[in-house]
Amino acid sequence: MNKTQIVIIGGGYAGVITALRLAGKDRGKRADVTLINAVDTFTQRIRLHQLATDQPLRQYPIPRLLGKRNVNFVQGWVTDISLDQHTVQVNLPDGAARTVPYDKLVYALGSIPATVNIPGVAEHTYSVGSREEAAALRQRLQQVEPGSRVVVVGGGLTGIETVTEIAEAYPQLQVHLVTAGAVGEKLSRHGRNYLMKVFEMLRIGVYEQTRVQAVEDGALVTADGQRIAFDVAVWGGSFVAAPLARAVGLPVNARGQILVDPYLHAISHPDVYVAGDAAAFVTQPGAPIRMACATAMPMGTQVGDNLLAVLNDQPQQRFHFNYFLQCISLGRDRGLVQFVRPDDTALERTLTGSTGALVKELICQFTVRSMQLERMLPGTYTWPGKGKIPVDAPHNQPVSEPVQHI
Ligand SMILES: Cc1cc2nc3c(=O)[nH]c(=O)nc-3n(C[C@H](O)[C@H](O)[C@H](O)COP(=O)(O)OP(=O)(O)OC[C@H]3O[C@@H](n4cnc5c(N)ncnc54)[C@H](O)[C@@H]3O)c2cc1C
After folding, report:
1. Beta-strand (E) ranges in 154-201?
2. Is the separation of the CB atoms in 295 and 321 below 8 Å?
3. Could you tell me if 97 and 264 are in contact, meaning their C-beta atoms sit under 8 angstroms apart?
4. Cα–Cα distance for residue pair 388/105, rounded to 1 Å
5. What is the pTM assigned to this prediction?
6. CA 119 / ligand 1 centre spacing (Å)
7. Predicted pLDDT at 113
8. On the CB side of 363, how many CA atoms lie within 13 Å of its CA?
9. Cα 118 to Cα 124, 143, 223, 314, distances in angstroms
10. Closest atom of ligand 1 to CA, residue 12
11. pLDDT at 93
12. Position 180 pLDDT exceeds 60
């Protein structure tokens, strides 16, 4: 029997768990599974603000994470996809180019910081979006003089985690957060009060309702004409999907995410599955899906299950997801666990302080541990809301985000 060639591009949270679920349950019977990733070590992206502040992170080589699960790992940079010919082009570390054919493709290339539309961001700011960027920030923070000004732009979860980590690790620096809205605006009243208390303890200055319009060498220029001086600027704003999807002609939304149906197929190409930050649902799967490890791993697992269903002539399942918690690190000593409704809106229930920090740390450990568990016992990984699809389907509600077709 000819085996189905399944190629997964992107070995982050979504791609690795897809490979483990699929290869672990198929056991090489019906599919050959190949995972392609730029580097051979798994990037714990949810800890990159820790890397930026010089904390040693445990390394997880991807081949070891995959174990003996019948996955062929290829280290290389994916440069192109031919959707007609069903091939992926990869640049290997030795400079050679390789063409990898597929019957089914899993696209899990994640996201990058959304900086393109603001002049000066690329030239003058650092980021924690990738391992290389976080390492460059680490080096810069180690060089600056005491009393230097660090500004972090972005009042969402990444900005909050980054600014608190820097302020805690470098108390000799003046650290500020700049945001277009309010800091942590989606938190409960109690959650936001706690956050502001921690900012005060860590002496973090806050500029709210301050939209950055341009970045110059040494200053942020805001929409109302202010200039906010800095020695180091960190872009912690929103993220967009990796650019390859748009470049190869897959239908994407305004953030470059591939439009997917409830089964996680690209709407234009049913042989292309999408998981993680790269995916945007055209109808809502139980909750609005934000770019998060918390959603990437469930999506990757569902893709693995759906591919297994196809291999075994079984019906595929719709993806369904509910939120439960938002966990925010505020340096190493404090954390904020915000309980949320299934749709991600905040409840007035939180865990704070060292308890919050402990829960957050355990959740970070859980991400890798659950991959290791999936490797040992395929089929174990699950998530809140899995399979709880109401008969009269909120799946039918269109997602309101603007859709941009190529
Ligand atoms: C500092 C920070 C803190 C965060 N904290 C949290 C948190 O607490 N909780 C939470 O839920 N989420 C958090 N997130 C978000 C979370 O990290 C992402 O949503 C998650 O990583 C998405 O998983 P993914 O598999 O889609 O992409 P990724 O984990 O980014 O994986 C994509 C992979 O594709 C590879 N790749 C990309 N392009 C190519 C190419 N052309 N060729 C080959 N390989 C390629 C990359 O190297 C990477 O390994 C945080 C993000 C950041 C930056």
Report:
1. 174-178
2. yes
3. no
4. 27
5. 0.95
6. 25
7. 85
8. 22
9. 11, 27, 11, 48
10. 31
11. 97
12. yes
From atom 15 of ligand 1, which residue's Cα is the shortest distance away? 292
Rounded Cα–Cα distance for residues 50 and 396 (Å): 40
Delineate the domains of the chain, giving CATH numbers in brackets.
Answer: 4-112+240-322+378-404 (3.50.50.60), 115-237 (3.50.50.60)
- Substitution site in 35, 293, 295, 365 for ligand 1 pocket (most atoms within 8 Å of beta carbon): 293
Residue 399 confidence (pLDDT): 52
d(CA 33, CA 12): 16
Q: Give the residue, out of 42, 44, 46, 337, with the most ligand 1 atoms within 8 A of its beta carbon, to mutate for a pocket test.
A: 46
CB 312 within 8 A of CB 30: yes
Q: Does the pLDDT of residue 165 top 60, yes or no?
A: yes
Instruction: Write the DSSP symbol of residue 165.
Output: H
pLDDT for the residue numbered 396: 43
Centre of ligand 1 to C-alpha 406, Å, is: 24
pLDDT in tens, 348-360: 999 999 999 999 9
pLDDT, residue 391, reads 52
The pLDDT value given to residue 286: 86
- Is any atom of ligand 1 closer than 6 Å to the C-beta of 78? yes
Average of pLDDT values for 12-18? 98
Interval 184-197 mean pLDDT: 95
Which positions ≥6 away from 33 have C-beta within 8 Å?
6, 8, 19, 22, 23, 26, 70, 71, 72
CA atoms within 13 A on the CB side of 121: 20
Residue whose CA lies nearest to ligand 1 atom number 50: 46
Closest CA to 302 of 256, 269, 260: 260
pLDDT on residue 390? 59
Secondary structure (3-state) at 308: helix
116 confidence band (pLDDT: 50, 70, 90)? low
CA–CA distance, 140 with 55 (Å, rounded to integer): 15
